[in-house]
Specification:
single chain, 86 residues, 69% helix, 3 helices, mainly alpha
């Protein structure tokens, strides 16, 4: 499988939390949602953002051109390795 280890770990964690949620309905399901959300974020980071970061640095697109929130967010993703969250 070509899935990164972090994705598998988050999915396993979410499944374990789901099992405990089914056993005790008084538990909060947020841990299940959080586990799947982290797995999805890791997939986006590994298959989209990492290549975009390389492309932006290669083509000198890693500096701010405007004082715009979207521009600032992309600057943080490229230069400070922030992860975009879905």
């Amino acid at each position: 499988m070509n899935i990164p280890a972090a994705v598998i770990e988050n999915i396993v964690s979410a499944e374990i939390n789901y099992y405990h949620l089914k056993a005790n309905p008084n538990f909060d399901g947020l841990s299940v949602i959080s586990g799947y959300h982290k797995a999805l974020d890791s997939l986006v980071e590994n298959y989209i953002i990492r290549d975009f970061r390389k492309f932006a640095k290669k083509h000198d697109q890693d500096e701010l051109h405007q004082n715009d929130p979207l521009e600032k967010a992309l600057h943080m993703v490229v230069n400070k390795k922030y992860i975009l969250s879905l």
